Amino acid sequence: MPPCIFCKIIKGDIPCTKVYEDKEVFAFLDIKPVNPGHTLVIPKKHYVNIHDTPDELIGKVAIVAKKIADAILKLGAKGVNIAMNNGVVAGQSVFHAHMHVMPRYGKDSFSLWVGKEYDGNEREKVAEKIRTSL
Ligand code: DGP
Question: CA 72 to CA 66: how far, in whole Å?
Answer without folding.
Answer: 10
